[in-house]
Amino acid sequence: MKLQNILLLLSSYVFYCFGDWRFLILLIGSSAIAYFLGIKIDEHEGNKKKFYVNIGLVLAIGTLFYFKYFNFFIDSFAELLGIKNTLTLNIALPLGISFYTFRMISYFLDIKNKKLKPETDALVFFNYIAFFPSMISGPIDRGRLLFPQLKNTRVFTYENGADAARQILYGAFKKLVVANSITPITQEIFQNYHHLSGSTVAFGAILFLFEIYADFSGYSDMAIGFARLLGFKITKNFAFPLFAQNIAEYWRKWHISLTSWLTDYVFTPLVIQFRDYEKKGLIAAIILNFVLIGAWHGPRYTFVLFGLLHGLYYIPLILTNKLNKKKKFLKSVPTFQELGNILLTMMMVCFAFILFAAPNLTDAAGMYGRIFSLSLFSIPQFIKVKILGFIFILILIDWINKDKEHGLEISRFNPFLRNLLYVFLIFMIMYFGMFGNSNFIYEQF
């Protein structure tokens, strides 16, 4: 087990160096500080415990703030005062800093709340922070999940290996075929929206939903698959959100590790704090939670508004007491009502994704202006049958396996059909895959 962990840590650090070796010192230093602070938090009670918790939170959040938000706040402050900004710094964003910072924060808070004992094995702890399958784009794993696995010898089994390979294959199809094929089209639409019809901009927003879903869930599939090849079971990050029947269900299925993280450490404490205000307090807690989700993505006002809009989407569900009601599909084919619910939810999501895609408020307003024009009723440009075919395959595979762990969990299928699907997906990747755009959208966060 120790030898496995040594090899895993070295692999994680080598992997990190491929992104930017200069920040390896930051990663190792942050891990060392978090390791010692976790032990100190557990050793003390009262004010001393609070002191070490606050030190850990300030260092973790402060580091994230400096690298990710410092220039944004300095620029905004200077603009507000109408003065020339001379403090803008050339700051590069360390790879995966948002993800490993949230791991550290949850570690401190779980020890504080006695949900977790501090990890005294430095090799285990450093592996937890630097775990390379989920370093670039998550999922955001908790210590409670990874520590026990890091302390046990991992044994490779054929069943896990085969299922992991299927998940990796499907993730590669999502990324290389679906997402990478859509990216040039959405870039063309969003960069030139001034000259395009409202229907084309709206079509771009629809395509962007499938692009970001295929890109992000494709990465998650591959990360989970590679982790399973190493003997780990990490956090599931997507649960077929394209079939959500309301916005609350969508967020229970989309970027699950971030949603659950914020539910535990932000939303739940806010609900307790605002409990005397009943539904108004619940609305306030949800809106604040989603503003933070938006801001987590980066230093842009459009991201904040993206989160705010999703928070506002929850208000009808809260007022009608439908927030926690989960809907299951009645048949293998969705009913008209279920299909209507899905389409309405996806329309809301696509509408909000305009804010996500726009680089600034001016462009976001311009895109919405094009959508809310008479040209919305014209025939959109950039419709390609090939791209629509890729999306159809993605939706079909997801729908067939919507109650499974991942989209290619098909061990129950006839062996001939399984092999046929494997060959088909490999052919699609080799023939239609676009390997030039290897970056993942969530790398920048």
TrEMBL record:
The keyword Membrane applies. Keywords: Acyltransferase, Cell membrane, Membrane, Transferase, Transmembrane, Transmembrane helix. It comes from the Bacteria. Its main location: membrane. Belongs to the membrane-bound acyltransferase family. The lineage of its organism: Bacteria, Pseudomonadati, Bacteroidota, Flavobacteriia, Flavobacteriales. It is found in: Cell membrane. PANTHER family: ACYLTRANSFERASE (PTHR13285), PROTEIN-CYSTEINE N-PALMITOYLTRANSFERASE RASP (PTHR13285:SF18). The chain crosses the membrane at residues 20-39, 51-69, 89-109, 121-140, 193-214, 281-297, 303-321, 342-362, 382-400, 420-442. Pfam families: MBOAT. It comes from Chryseobacterium formosus. This is MBOAT family protein. It is a multi-pass membrane protein.
